[in-house]
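Q: Structure tokens for this one, please.
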Amino acid sequence: MDGTPVTVASVGEVGPDTVALELETPAGFDALPGQFVLLRAAPEDEEIARHYTLSSPTVGETFELTVGIDPEGDLSPWLAGLEGGETVHVEGPFGRITYDDDGDVVAAAGGPGVGAGVAVAEAAHEAGHDATVIYQADEPAHTDRLEALSDAGATVVFIDDGAAEELADAIATHHEDGQVYAFGFDDFVTAVADAIEAAGGDPDDALIENFG
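A: Here is the predicted structure, written as tokens:
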């Protein structure tokens, strides 16, 4: 199997149908919030590969991936059922959308983009900068971390899935509060870009990771 073998340190539930996969960091692996890896595993002896974005603000002895569970999926239910001690393979990190302690941020996250969004916001806050999270989902994940950010002075805005007007209003209100990051599927990041433009900003200045 291609990639570097890494040990699963733990798996924990972080929201409805969502788990955080904590992996032991292999030698030479260094990544920034916003980057992603290609994870390979072989449930039932058939190799499957999927991309997952880092959801930890730093990489130390371990790093975290957030996995949304598709009950009909061929990999995510298997990952959610791990107990720790198993081996998966990773390649990367990949991606040029990163945060490296360089100022205030506005992290817009749609659905599974919350892992990257909360990681960027936490990294900014830990570096002494202001952070805003705009998170659209019907069943939010990582609420403990988002509440901790809010308690520490960050701005956290929850928006129901499909609430287009509320998303546009939140982007209009906060898009000048820092470097805008957007993580999510095409409909979401397109809506964020359109809202920035409608509010008089330049969507080309936003750092957007489109999940497809």
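A few notes: The chain has two domains: 4-94, 105-210. The two ends are 26 Å apart (CA to CA).
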